[in-house]
Amino acid sequence: MTVSDQEELVTAAPAAPAVTPAPVAGGRASREALYFARRNRKLVAGFGVVLLFLTVAVAGPLLTDHGPNEYVGPPAQRPSARYWFGTTMFGQDVFAQFTHGLRSTFLVGVLGGGLAAAIGMLVGFTAGYRGGVVDEVLNMITNIVLVIPTLAVLLIIAAYLRVRGVVPEAVFIGLSSWPWVARAIRAQTFSLRSREFVDLARLSGLSGRRIVLKEIAPNMSSYLFMTFILLFGGSVLIAATLDFIGLGPTEGTSLGLMMNNAVLWSALPLGMWWWFVPPGLGITVIVGALYVMNVGLDEVFNPKLRAM
Amino acid sequence: MSTVSLRVENLRVCYRTLRGDVQALDDVTFAVADGEIMGLAGESGCGKSTLGKSLIRLDGRMRHVGGSVELDGKELPVWDTAKMNGFRFKEVSIIPQYAMSAMNPTRKIGRMVAELLESRGVGFDTTRPELQRRLELVELSEDVLARYPIELSGGMKQRMVMVLSTLLNPSLLIADEVTSALDVSTQKAVAETLVGFRDRGFVKSMIVITHDVSLVYQIADSIMVMYAGKLAEKAPTDELVAAPRHPYTQLLISSLPEVGVRYADRRLTGIPGKPPSLLSPPVGCRFRDRCPLAFDKCAEEPPFVEVERDHWVACWKAG
Amino acid sequence: MLKLEKVSKVYKVGVFGGRDLTAVRDVSFEVRPGEVVSLIGESGSGKTTIGRMVLRLTSISGGSVTLDGVDVAAVRRRDLKDYYRKVQGVFQDPFSSYNPIFKADRVFAMVKDQYFPQVGGQQWRRKLDASLEAVRLDPGQVLHRYPHQLSGGQLQRLLIARALLLDIRLLVADEVISMLDASTRIDVLNLLADLKARGLGILFITHDLSLGNYVSEQTVILRRGEVVEMGATDRVFGDPQHPYTKRLLASVPQLHKKWRQVEAELHLQGERG
Question: Which residue of A has its CA nearest to C92?
Answer without folding.
Answer: A196
